[in-house]
From TrEMBL:
<dbReference type="InterPro" id="IPR042529">
    <property type="entry name" value="IF_2B-like_C"/>
</dbReference>
<comment type="similarity">
    <text>Belongs to the eIF-2B alpha/beta/delta subunits family.</text>
</comment>
<dbReference type="Pfam" id="PF01008">
    <property type="entry name" value="IF-2B"/>
</dbReference>
<feature type="region of interest" description="Disordered">
    <location>
        <begin position="122"/>
        <end position="153"/>
    </location>
</feature>
<keyword id="KW-0808">Transferase</keyword>
<dbReference type="GO" id="GO:0005829">
    <property type="term" value="C:cytosol"/>
</dbReference>
<dbReference type="GO" id="GO:0016740">
    <property type="term" value="F:transferase activity"/>
</dbReference>
<dbReference type="InterPro" id="IPR018247">
    <property type="entry name" value="EF_Hand_1_Ca_BS"/>
</dbReference>
<dbReference type="GO" id="GO:0003743">
    <property type="term" value="F:translation initiation factor activity"/>
</dbReference>
<dbReference type="InterPro" id="IPR051855">
    <property type="entry name" value="eIF2B_beta_subunit"/>
</dbReference>
<dbReference type="InterPro" id="IPR000649">
    <property type="entry name" value="IF-2B-related"/>
</dbReference>
<dbReference type="GO" id="GO:0005085">
    <property type="term" value="F:guanyl-nucleotide exchange factor activity"/>
</dbReference>
<comment type="subunit">
    <text>Component of the translation initiation factor 2B (eIF2B) complex which is a heterodecamer of two sets of five different subunits: alpha, beta, gamma, delta and epsilon. Subunits alpha, beta and delta comprise a regulatory subcomplex and subunits epsilon and gamma comprise a catalytic subcomplex. Within the complex, the hexameric regulatory complex resides at the center, with the two heterodimeric catalytic subcomplexes bound on opposite sides.</text>
</comment>
<dbReference type="InterPro" id="IPR037171">
    <property type="entry name" value="NagB/RpiA_transferase-like"/>
</dbReference>
<keyword id="KW-0648">Protein biosynthesis</keyword>
<keyword id="KW-0396">Initiation factor</keyword>
<keyword id="KW-0963">Cytoplasm</keyword>
Length: 383
C-alpha cells in the first residue's frame, strides 16, 4: 500500500476507504461523488515535478479506494475519469507526450480515412506514396525544450495547469450532481399516455425519470414488485404514489403473470459493463427474463458514470447480503440443511436489454464499449 505524502489527503483516503469497506456509502452516485471529492483534494494538494508523477499519485489513491469495495464500480470509474482528464490536459499543454500508435494496430476510423489513399494506390500504383502516416512538423526548439518551469509549489506549469485541471474537474462534478435531471430530460419521448410500465427496486434514476414524464402530462400506470426480502419496491411504490403517479404494488411471484399486460420494463442499473450487460437490483433478472418471454421491451436508465470497462467474464462475482431475512435462525432444523443466498444484485445479459438511456442520449447495448473507449484510457481498464 502506497501512502500519500500529504497528511490531509492521506486522512481523507483512509476515512473513505473505511466507510466503503463497512458499506456506509450507499448508492453509486454517492460513492462517485465522495470519491470525486477525495481525489480532487489529492490533486489540489499534490506536489509533482511532471505529469506522470501526478498520475501515479492519483492511481495510488484510487487503487486503495477500489480495493476497499471492488464491487462498487462507480469508484473505479471516477478514478479513470481523473486519469483521463489529467492526460488530456497534459497533452493539450504539451507537458505530456502523446502516446505513439502501434504500427500493427488499426481502427475503423483509420480504415475509412485511408480509403481514398487506397483507391489512388490501386489506380495509379504505389509510386510517389512514401508514407501512410506523415509525421507532423515540430520546431527543433520545441523538441529540445525541457519542462523546467516548476513553480514554488513544485507543480509543472505553475498554477496554470492546475487551474485548467480544476476547471475540467468541475465539469465532472456537475455531471454527477445533475445526472438525474439529464437522464430524465427526454422521458416524455419514451413514455406515452395509457401505458403500463413495470420497474424493479428503488432507483432514484427511475423515480426521477417517471416523475419527469408525469409532469410532462403523460398519464400512465407503474407496476412495482415488492422485491423481497429487502422490500425496496414498497419504498419505490410509495415514492411514485406521492408524486401522483398511478402505482400498483404486487408480490414478486406475480411478475410473470402480469408481464403480458405491460408495455415496457424500466430498470435502473448499479453498473453497466463493457459488453452491454449490467448489474441491477435483485429481481431485475426475473423481470427481464419474463419480458423476453413476452416480447416486451426492456429499457435501462443509468448515468454515464456507471459505465465500466470491465467485461462480464472478468467482473467480480455477485455480492450477497445477510441471509437471515430469507431464512431466519429460528428455523434451526432447516437452516442446517440448505444454503441460503440473498444477492444484492442480478447480472442481466445484454441480449435481454433493448436500449440504455443515459445523460448523453440513448444507446444500444452493442454501442456501450464505444462509449467506454471514449470516456477512459485503455491503460486504465485494469487498475
Amino acid at each position: 500500500m502506497t501512502l500519500l505524502k500529504d497528511r490531509a489527503s492521506e486522512r481523507l483516503v483512509v476515512e473513505l476507504t473505511d466507510r466503503l469497506r463497512r458499506r456506509q456509502v450507499l448508492g453509486a452516485q454517492q460513492a462517485a461523488i465522495e470519491t470525486f471529492h477525495v481525489l480532487r483534494q489529492v490533486v489540489a494538494r499534490a506536489r509533482f515535478s511532471d505529469i506522470q508523477e501526478l498520475l501515479d499519485l492519483v492511481k495510488a489513491a484510487g487503487r486503495r479506494l477500489i480495493a476497499a469495495q471492488p464491487k462498487e464500480h462507480a469508484v473505479g470509474n471516477i478514478v479513470r475519469k481523473f486519469l483521463h482528464l489529467i492526460r488530456e490536459e497534459g497533452h493539450a499543454s504539451g507537458k505530456l507526450s502523446a502516446p505513439k500508435p502501434s504500427a500493427t494496430s488499426s481502427s475503423l476510423a483509420d480504415f475509412i480515412r485511408l480509403a481514398p489513399l487506397r483507391a489512388q494506390t490501386h489506380t495509379h500504383g504505389t509510386a510517389g506514396v512514401t508514407s501512410r502516416h506523415p509525421a507532423p512538423h515540430r520546431p527543433a526548439d520545441e523538441e529540445d525544450a525541457a519542462i523546467d518551469d516548476e513553480d514554488e509549489d513544485g507543480v509543472v506549469g505553475g498554477g496554470d495547469f492546475k487551474g485548467l485541471l480544476m476547471d475540467g474537474l468541475r465539469e465532472i462534478l456537475d455531471e454527477l450532481e445533475t445526472v438525474y435531471e439529464n437522464v430524465s430530460k427526454n422521458a416524455k419521448d419514451h413514455i406515452h399516455s395509457d401505458e403500463i410500465i413495470l420497474t424493479v427496486g428503488h432507483s432514484r434514476t427511475i423515480a426521477s425519470f417517471l416523475s419527469s414524464a408525469h409532469h410532462s402530462g403523460r398519464n400512465f400506470t407503474v407496476i412495482v414488485p415488492e422485491t423481497a426480502p429487502s422490500y425496496s419496491g414498497r419504498a419505490m411504490a410509495s415514492s411514485l404514489a406521492t408524486s401522483g403517479i398511478s402505482t400498483v404494488l404486487i408480490p414478486d411471484s406475480a411478475v410473470f403473470a402480469l408481464l403480458s399486460r405491460v408495455n415496457k420494463v424500466l430498470l435502473g442499473a448499479h453498473a453497466v459493463l463493457a459488453d452491454g450487460g449490467m448489474f441491477a437490483p435483485a429481481g431485475a433478472l426475473l423481470a427481464a427474463s419474463a419480458a423476453r418471454a413476452h416480447s416486451v421491451p426492456v429499457v435501462v436508465c443509468a448515468g454515464q458514470f456507471k459505465l465500466t470497462p470491465t467485461w462480464s467474464a472478468a467482473a467480480p462475482g455477485l455480492e450477497f447480503a445477510d441471509p437471515a431475512p430469507v431464512l431466519g435462525f429460528e428455523e434451526g432444523a432447516l437452516v442446517e440443511k440448505v444454503d441460503v443466498l440473498n444477492p444484492y444484485w442480478d447480472y442481466v445479459r445484454p441480449e435481454m436489454i433493448d436500449v440504455y438511456i443515459t445523460n448523453y442520449g440513448d444507446h444500444a447495448p452493442s454501442f456501450i464499449h464505444r462509449l467506454i473507449k471514449d470516456s477512459y484510457d485503455d491503460e486504465d481498464s485494469d487498475l
